[in-house]
Amino acid sequence: MRLSTTTFTDGIRHSRQARSFNRAGGSASPAILFAFLLILLVAATVILFAAHVYPAPPPISRDAVLVDRQYNLTLYATGAAFLLAQLSLAYAVLRFRDRGQKARFVRGSVALEILWTSLTLFIFVGLGILGRRAWAEVRFTPPTSGAIQVEATTNQFVFTFRYPGMDGKFGRLDPNLINAPAGNPLGIDPNDPAGGDDIVVSELTIPVDRPVELLLRSQDVVHNFFVRELRLQQDAVPGMIIPVHFTVDQVGNYDIVCTQLCGLAHYKMHSLLHVVSQFEFETFLNHQAIAQ
Ligand SMILES: [Cu+2]
């Protein structure tokens, strides 16, 4: 009995010693595991981007090339910051892991705070200034002379495009006259002579290598005009006419989609952009003028 009591208390003392030894020495495994997972995550992210797993379709305008350039620049700058931050974190986790040492309160460094805050500010403002050309030129500068004007009207859940016709003038619109089943989805006023030759179609046809100015409108909620190959995504807002302009340098057919969640059938709000030769464009206009 005496012997067994001694063995029991000895056992407790030994296990307490073992625990305090562990506490004093810390444990490396959680830190190693965390650092390993972090490096794995960073490597997987870099490989995903570098391998171009989801490549964008080739750009079809000069502005689209500028957007791509800006995108890559932003990706390199933020990618470098991401790599640096995550690898530093992995290093810090390993270097300052629990070795049984006492925790120490660190106030930080004002100089370092100022340095990385101004560096971040400099990089972000710099990227914004560099990106201004790619983004603002399409929207805030007028198109070059001779641009073809096309009006793009959105509503749940269709795109409608209007060409001004031979007179080069759009007819007056009256919301009270909107009647899609009767063939007037835009509400063109029949009493305005400028509207008599307007061409209204559900797909956008434009000539290659000619500047096009698109006037975006919406009849109900906020929609969006997005063509991946143009790298152009612009909201259409009710009550506003939003101009954007571009020049496509490659013949082809491209998808136009709405990227604003505009209602239950948003997923099927879709149209097509046909980029054709100047001759085919004129033929298209003539055919439509006769048909309408
Ligand atoms: Cu929509």
Could you walk me through the main structural features you see in this protein, from its secondary elements to its overall organization?
This protein is an alpha+beta fold and 292 residues long. It is 43% helix and 20% strand. The strands form three sheets. Strands 3-2-1-5-8 form a five-stranded mixed sheet. A three-stranded mixed sheet has the order 4-10-9. A two-stranded antiparallel sheet has the order 6-7. The radius of gyration is 32 Å and the shape is elongated. The N terminus is likely disordered. Bound molecules: copper (II) ion. Copper (II) ion (CU) binds next to loops.
Strand content: 15-25%
Low-confidence spans: 1-9, 14-22
Q: N-to-C terminal Cα separation, in Å?
A: 110 Å
Strand and helix order: HHHHEEEEEEEEEEH
> Helicity, in percent?
40-55%
What Rg, in angstroms, do the CA atoms define? Answer: 32 Å
Structural class: alpha+beta
Shape: elongated
Strand order of the largest sheet: 3-2-1-5-8
Round the mean pLDDT to the nearest integer and report it: 89
Beta strands, count: 10
Which molecules other than protein and nucleic acid are bound? copper (II) ion
Number of helices: 5
Largest sheet: 5 strands, mixed
